[in-house]
Structures are given as C-alpha cells and as structure tokens.
Design a protein that fits this description.
single chain, alpha+beta, five-stranded mixed beta sheet, 16 strands, 38% helix
C-alpha cells in the first residue's frame, strides 16, 4: 500500500510539473506573441507614417509611353514602357476589377493586407515541396504586389518578404481598398512593355481600358501570372486558354453568372495588329527625337500623329528593293508640297542596317547640284532661251569635260541643262560667281558645307538626300521655302493638344519667274534629256546626278505636288559599275511616283510666268528699222547683217564624227516653241512689258 501511494505521489508530481511547464510555455508564447504583435503594430505604424501620400504614389510612373500614328491614324510603333492613361477606380469597368480580384486575391476585401489563409496554404505547399527547389508561391495579396511594385523589388529573400508584409499592412491602414485597387490596376505589368490596364488595353485591343468587355478583361487579367507566356500577340491560343480559366474562377467566386460565362466569346475578341517594324522605323527614328523641342511633357503618355503615308511607304520600299543594284544601298525621301514627309527609306533593310542614308549620309550629288547653278544664272538675268556655247573651258588649270567626251557648240540654256553639259555649267559658274551659287544652295536648305572651288558646279560638295529633296520641293512650290516635317500634332492619351504643326509660307527664296524658269529646264531634262527613265505619263520635272567613277547615282524630281529624291551607292563609296542617275535611281523614282500620285489630279507646270522688265529690253534697243527686214545694229550703231541664208563654212561646219567615222548628232536646239510642241501644249502669245514697236 505504501508503494502504491508512493507511485501515485510521483505520478501526481510529474503531472503537476508538466502542467506547470505547459502553463509557463503558454504564458511565454502568449507574451512573445503579444510582444510580436506589439512590435508588428509599431512597425506598421512607423511604416504607415513613412508612406507618401496617395498623389505621390500615383505620380511614380514606370516610364512614358509614346504611340506613333501614321497619316491614316493607324499605330505604326509604340515606344518606351507603355504606361497608359491613369484611370480612377470609377472609370475602370467592374468586369476588369472583378476579374483581377477573382484570379489574384479572392479574399482581398476581407484581409488586412496579408492573407493568413493564403500564408498557411503557401507554407503547407512549401513543406510538401521542400528539397525540390521550388519557391513558396501563392501567398502574395494584391496589396503586397502593390508594395513590391512601388517600394521594393522582385528579389526572393525572407527579409524582403517581411518588409513587404509590413508595408502591405501599413498601406491597408492608410488607404482604402478602392485606392489600393486603383494603384494596382494602373501599375501592374501585363507584358509587352504595358504597365496598367489602360496601356494593356490600348496595346492589345487598340482602345482605352474604360471600354473593356468581359472577354477582354479576362484576357488582361490572365496575363499577370506569366505575361510573356500568355501575351495575345505572342501566343493568342495560350492567352485565350488562360482567359477561359479566369472566367471559370469568376463564375465560381460569384463575380459573374453561369449565363455570362457561357456568353463570353473569347474567340471573337479582335486583337490590335502588331505595327510594322521595318522601313517605317527609318522615319520614326528621324521624327521622334524632334519631340524634345516640340513638347514639354515628360510623364504623360503621348499620342504622336505623323505625316507618313503607309501606302506610299510600301511603294517606296518596293521601289528601292526592286531597282537598287546588287551590293549597293538605296534611299528615298518623298515630300508633299508643304514639306510633309510621306515616305522615307533609309536603306535596303532596317533590320540589318538602321543607318538612315536619307537623313544622315553625306554624299556628292553630281549634276543634281546644277539646280543651284542654273537658278543663280536665271536670277542673274539668263533665261532658258539664252544662247550659250559648249566648248573647252580652262579655269585656273581645271578643265571640265562632258560625259560624252565631245563638244556640241552653240545651244541655249535649256539644251545645256537637259543634256547636263558640264562646260556650260562651269562657264555659268564663272559668270555668276561660285560664292553666289554656294549662297543659293544654302538658301534652299543645304546644311552641309559648300565649297566655292570651280568644280563645285559639278556637285563636289557633300549633301544629304533630305536636304537636296527639300531644295527641289521649294522649286516645286514656286520658290517658297519648304521645311521637311514628320509630326503633325501631339496629344496626351485623353486628347489634350500639346503641339500642332503650322505651315509657313512667308519665306520666298527666289522670285516666281526664277522658279518657273528652272522648272522649265527640269521638265525638259525629263522629257528629252538625261531623265527620260523618270517619265510616268504626266508632267514630271527633275534632274539626274552621277558622280565620278559611278560612286553615286541620284534622281530628284517632282510631279503633282509630290517631290521625291532617290540616292543609290555603296556605304564605302566604292564605284558601282553602270550606276547612273538616269538609270536605276530614275527607274525607282518612276516606280514609286506612279503609286504616289495615282490618286492626285494631273498638274501642268506653270512655266509661262512673265519675266521682269529689266530682263526684257525694249525692241527699239535691239534693232533699227522694221523688225522683219533682217537689219540689226550693234552698240555703236553699225549694221549687223543676219539676212544671208547661204551656208558658210563658218556658220555651217561639217558634221562631227566619232572615232568610228559615224556622224555625231548634236543635241537639238530646244527653244520654247520646240518644248511646247514636245509637251503638246499651245503657246499663248505673251506681252512683254516695256516692249514697243519702233516709230518709223
């Protein structure tokens, strides 16, 4: 009995001891928990006090989105992180809010920023997956995602996770659930550079998130889990499959009814097409840097409306690819009458070479530079009908030669220009002055240095294609300055106007009669001279250019308000066999222009402008007696006999022959009557101011 009592006493003592330690453990645990809760509360309060206000949280974008539109309004490229228009909670459709809450945090409205149930489930999964290398997942609430996106990073450490939870609870204490959802839906990343539901909606569907339908909202909500895997533009089938899961979860959570789930037509969702990434990028690379000088808006998303015509751009790309000789590069710039860039091709392929030869490369223009030589001559008093002579020229040891290797003698300015006679250009340069020609080039927009050596008349100064095209466009506009531009207007995503282009017609570079005269010459060059390959079945005015050893080939011209410049050559400036401005470049010009002007009315050129009085000396100063009696006098009053019709050895030399003994046919003399006949137009008699009949 004594032993039994002793055993009971020992058993009772052990039980009491266990109870005592259990009570102590519970007390210590409770106190520790209380201390932990107090510490957590303190940490949350401290964190809450350090949080910025709501407006500051809103104004921390991930970057500025820029959407670039073509002339028809279609989006051709989106640049930068797509951070769309900020939408208030009331502006976000309920289907979008419900989809995100259902699939990302179904207990969002019931937890304090951290979901205990979600944490427990994630911990259980972590125990099950220990040793597999898989991370704990599924525990982050929407609030935690907001704190991670704004304040933290995506590094996976326990310290970062603890800070994330503390900040999430602080966020819940300081802001409402609606505010947190607004932050989340405007900042979460959806892939493809799109941050926020509005940017995602514009990228994938082409409209604001305020107009999202249920199927579209489901597709966007499904992206958050794995943006690259479920992107509609990368894998439409995977995106639709994931959206189906989202819709099922919404139905199970009561966010939508079974009928709404059945009616959601995911296959009928229209995705926005991916913008082109090839030759049009030459244009955007040139135009978009200009935004820094046009607008002052570093944060809001921008909508940039440009001048580029996608149909003309496609035609330009095809013309360059089709006609550029093998092993060479080609470039094209096309301007509308006000300077709007309608097409720009900077090379054969943007993907392999993004160097823009239309705006960056500087090359010798060859005879295309004669535009400035002849305009300077016209401004100095020459006319298309002025007599000149193709003969050997020596200017301080420089002796220019014609490409034909021979001299054609007497001709008029029109003929010399049409056949690109180098000796005449050199003589005109001596007459008007080489600095005067350089000034004319700079006046018309040549931004590169222009030398004043005699050889400059043959195009030995480097120019940019866009600058030379600009000069020809100014001629097309009858001497009014043209400045190339690519941006029509810039607005914010909500339509607020930041910039609007205005056409400036106030700068006259030359008098109208000078522009008319050079247009006459340019038209002749295409109809009968070196630019025949550029004919397109309607009036075209233009000029070829070929440099020494065929290193560069150019054709510059205009028709029906469109001015286009084409260049071809090698980047290393090596010779290209057979490359001439009147061949491949002129053919590319013609192929493109047939498309570019197809929907425009035919516009005849105005080459009938009356010359100023100082250029038209009165008839009585030109001859004495009846105009038809063939008697003229010189400045000393001595008679000059032009009445003889008998040929003489001096006036009618024997025909020239080439090395093979064949007769060389000289270029025809193209006076105004001849060119009118070629162009099929009736010449109207023109009164010459100051001209009077002599009093007999």
């Amino acid at each position: 009995m004594a032993r039994a009592g002793s055993k009971k006493a020992v058993s009772g003592g052990a039980s009491a001891s266990v109870k005592l330690w259990l009570i102590r453990g519970l007390k210590i645990g409770g106190l520790s928990l209380l201390a932990g809760l107090i510490a957590l509360a303190v940490a949350v309060v401290v964190a809450m006090q350090s949080l910025p206000n709501y407006e500051a949280l809103k104004s921390s974008p991930n970057g500025q989105m820029i959407r670039v539109h073509a002339a028809d309004g279609s989006v051709i490229v989106s640049l930068g992180p797509s951070f769309g228009r900020w939408l208030s909670f009331d502006q976000i459709p309920d289907v979008m809010v419900n989809a995100m809450v259902s699939v990302e945090d179904k207990r969002f409205y019931h937890h304090p920023g951290v979901d205990p149930i979600g944490l427990a489930r994630a911990a259980w999964l972590a125990v099950e997956n220990r040793g597999t290398g898989r991370r704990m997942q599924g525990a982050s609430t929407i609030t935690q995602q907001v704190t991670r996106n704004i304040f933290l990073n995506n590094s996976y450490t326990w310290g970062r996770k603890v800070r994330e939870m503390i900040l999430a609870m602080a966020l819940e204490r300081k802001f409402s659930k609606r505010q947190i959802l607004e932050l989340y839906l405007n900042k979460v990343y959806f892939g493809g550079g799109a941050y926020g539901v509005d940017a995602a909606s514009r990228k994938f569907f082409g409209h604001s998130a305020a107009q999202l339908s249920l199927p579209e909202a489901a597709i966007i909500a499904g992206l958050v889990k794995a943006p690259s895997s479920y992107s509609p533009t990368a894998d439409a089938e995977a995106a639709i499959g994931r959206a189906g899961v989202v819709l099922d979860v919404m139905r199970d959570n009561g966010a939508i009814t079974a009928v709404e789930r059945a009616d959601a037509d995911l296959a009928g969702v229209k995705l926005s097409p991916e913008p082109p990434q090839n030759s049009v990028r030459y244009f955007t690379d040139w135009a978009l840097p200009q935004l820094d000088t046009l607008v002052d808006e570093p944060n809001e998303p921008l909508e940039v409306w440009t001048t580029i015509d996608l149909n003309m751009q496609r035609a330009a790309t095809a013309a360059i690819k089709t006609n550029t000789p093998s092993g060479t590069q080609g470039a094209l710039v096309s301007l509308d009458r006000d300077g709007a860039v309608r097409a720009m091709v900077g090379g054969n392929d943007y993907v392999t070479s993004n160097y823009n030869r239309a705006t960056q490369a500087v090359r010798q223009p060859g005879s295309a530079f004669k535009l400035f030589v002849y305009m300077a001559a016209l401004e100095a008093g020459y006319t298309p009908d002025t007599a000149v002579k193709d003969e050997p020229v020596d200017i301080d040891g420089w002796q220019p030669r014609n490409s034909s290797g021979r001299y054609s003698g007497d001709m008029d300015v029109r003929t010399a220009f049409a056949y690109s006679i180098n000796t005449v250009a050199a003589k005109l340069g001596m007459e008007v002055g080489f600095p005067t020609i350089a000034d004319m080039a700079r006046r018309f927009g040549i931004t590169t240095p222009v030398n004043t050596h005699p050889s400059m008349v043959l195009g030995t100064s480097d120019v940019r294609l866009i600058d030379l095209t600009r000069a020809f466009a100014s001629v097309s506009r009858k001497g009014i300055a043209v400045t190339p531009y690519g941006i029509v207007k810039v607005t914010t995503a909500d339509g607020r106007m930041l910039y609007q282009h205005e056409d400036d017609t106030s700068r006259a570079l030359v008098a109208p009669w000078v522009a008319a005269g050079i247009t006459d010459l340019l038209q002749t060059a295409v109809n009968t001279g070196t630019g025949k390959a550029a004919q397109i079945g309607r009036p075209v005015a233009g000029k070829t250019g070929t440099t020494n050893s065929n290193k560069d080939g150019w054709f510059m011209g205009f028709s029906s308000g469109i001015t286009t410049g084409v260049w071809m050559g090698r980047d290393n400036a090596r010779a290209v066999g057979g490359l001439q401005g009147g061949r491949a470049p002129a053919q590319a010009f013609a192929q493109y222009m047939r498309v570019a002007v197809a929907k425009r009315p035919v516009e005849p050129f105005d080459t009938q402008v009356t010359l100023p009085e100082w250029q038209l000396e009165p008839d009585e100063e030109s001859y004495f007696g009846k105009p038809d009696n063939g008697m003229y006098v010189d400045e000393n009053g001595m008679p000059i006999d032009h009445g003889s019709s008998e040929p003489s050895e001096e006036s009618d030399p024997p025909p020239a022959v080439d090395d093979g003994g064949q007769e060389v046919v000289a270029p025809p003399k193209m006076d105004q009557n001849w060119i009118d006949n070629v162009l099929g137009r009736e010449r109207q008699p023109r009164e010459r101011p100051g001209a009077t009949q002599p009093n007999l």
